[in-house]
Write a structure and sequence with these properties.
By secondary structure, this protein is mainly beta. The chain is built from twelve helices and 55 strands. A hairpin with a 2-residue loop joins strand 2 and strand 3.
Amino acid sequence: MGTAIGTKLGPYEVLGALGAGGMGEVYRARDPRLGREVALKLLPGSFLSDASRLQRFEQEARAAAALNHPNILAVHDIGQQDGLPYIVTELLKGETLRERLRAGALPIRKAIDFGEQIARGLAAAHEKGIVHRDLKPENIFVTDDGRVKILDFGLAKLTGAACGDSGETLPSGINSEPGAILGTVGYMSPEQVRGEAVDPRTDIFSFGAVLYEALSGRPAFKRETWAETMTAILKEDPAEFAETGSAVPPGIERVVRRCLEKSPPQRFQSAKDLAFALEAVSGGSSQMTAPSALTRNRFSYWKAAIAMFALLGAIAAGYVAGTRQPSTPARFQQLTFQRGYIKGARFAPDGQNVIYSAEWEGRPYEVFSTRVGSNTSRSLELGHAMLVGVSAAGEMAVLVDVHRGPETNWMQVGTLARAPASGGATREILEGVWDADISRDGRQFTVVRASDAWQQLEYPIGKILFKTQGYISHPRISPDGTRIACLEHPVWGDDRGYVTLVDSRGNSKRLTPELQSEEGLAWNSDGTEILYGGNEPAQSSGARTVHGVTPDGKSRNILDVPGELVIWDVADGGRLLVSNETMLVAQFVASPATEPERNVSELGYGTFGVVSPDGKAVAFTESGHGTPEDYLVLFRRLDGSAGVEIGEGGAKGMTPDGKYVVAAVPSQPGKLRILPTGPGEARTINTDLLIDSRSFVSWMPGGKEFIFQARDAHGGRRGYRVSLDGGPVRPLTNQKGTQLWNRISPDGRLVVQQIIDDANTAPQNVILDLSTGRTRPAPIEQDEAPAEWDQDGRHIFVVRQGERSATIFRVDAFTGHREVWKQVQPADLAGILSLSHFYVTPSANAYAYSAARILSQLYIYSKNE
């Protein structure tokens, strides 16, 4: 190293050499102005030959200097000496993560601790618009006291090793010295390898590679040559942790795998979400492992419900407040007493009355009013109506003509209207509204509406602030009318998601980690906190409790009692209006089809049942309590045998020979799992698409290839086909617009589907001839959907769903002649939200469907001061 001790660079006096590398020489130096030691890096002379490069360095160094975070190396100063640029940073004592890893894999808790710190540092940088682009063990420093520091922020895209929007590529000398850059190439994201533009999700991929190596002791993608390494990044998954000899818990492995998704939309979307996920799996060992759900106690949900209400009647201190300090006596007042489902509730402006809507005893939605302390409710004579808001002036916002949305259980759509809080005539405002709220002064509305493959949040009506390919629920206008808090659900029909805050300019941010279930939202009276019902990923019970989160993301636990809580409103003085729910989903199967239906669910939340062609077995999804984040697929023979857990995911189809089940993975929406129903190994198909969670797969003749629904990069839904053994995924057709259903005939020639073209015209139900590419109208009405083709290749089983009943027709695909094949309706309609996911075997020897039920009661919770 060429700079002698005692040399001055600007005001800094060199004390000794620290190291050298491709990015220059590093010295220990003293800053006499502040009397402290610093690290001083002299950058290569190549910077001087490129004025734009030097300008970018100065800009990025200043940006990095603006970062003030304990997990990022602090930049103190930049300057030039004899024409060479230098950068001054804090002086660290310790070693790089690369040096740590030379001894092998880290202990799991140490690796996750380091990972949390790295993720928090990345989140701070990303919020400032800085993407590292060269995250690797060499650029991560571990101090002697265990603190992690990310090095070289703002410099990575100038090293020449990263590819991105600056247009820089791999160094020209790469072919002669591949080993010199392999450490960097091994941590690139697929988009960097392809030379595409990058964003913060690039750092998340690199982070996943670093964490994988920390846990396993081996690089995720390193191969013999740089070309092979880049090919592995583009096309291969790292070895399973079990193959590396590392006993990594499933929850941690899911986090790593999600970071390493090839497609950026399938990774964590922010480093903040990633940090939350790591915090969730970093608790005690009971939270870091996932024992089989079938080994747990199987208390039935109706027993749990009885126990829940008994406990609520007697509870005096069963809640958690703030930071779980010693509890204060609490009071619950029960407001409702009938059987059914409550959806929408608010305090009236006087705080002494409560307005709510409910489906009591299986009847349609109706709006009621009750006085606090009374045990009776009065109808406001608003039938088929659901409450969505109450203004301070005493005016209600309601959805009238409300009905369930397609393929949903707890989602609904209707026409937004105003009405006096005391009841009376409504004034309609807007059709096609999924959810809404009214401002405190009653002058504005926020609404959720659908637009093709998206749901959008508008405030005021017509001004789009936020969009998602999933769905949005519980939008709530802040007391000052400047912001909207809502529940964002990335997967359609799945109640997992985030609490998201959106301002009037459309800027949005997620305030929570991904919640396994979320329902209910309310602002406190002064707008300093948002209350929500949700279950944090780390909660082993999975119960939904009430939490609070500030607009800057500080959270606390507020109320924790047995059952599933939904928060509806907060009154002055801190009283909470909550409902407590018991949720069940029954997976019904009738085999033979003439026999009575039976519920085969084992854990109380069975859905997406597919029956084997011989009618002797069923595979279905269990997604309730006692299941892991990605749910469970159970296989159950219909001879009275118990169900067998065959893997994680959501069931989408069973091979015609009954040997395998195709399953989707909620946390990794680009992957399909092939699960054996008997002996054999599970395998994964990477599709690089967003798998549609709402549909079954359909089998090509021979059962070696299947069709599935997915969204492309632009959000459009269509059918794709892939071999059961994997291989290339290709579109089923080259049709334009959105395609739904895509059920294929037994001979593989005809496809029944619904088409929504790009002009947003009304959906068209068609039959496509794959041999000619021609379509003709299908004899299916707009409110119907195909369940399956009859094995004769001429008839289609078509389902027309009511809200609590359904009719299955057998329809001639050529003449349109139809006959009723089966009428379905549960005997007990109380709390039934919908019937869904109908499946009929091609031989018509069996059928299956799911029935969702929620029973809820309304309470006021208050502390006794």
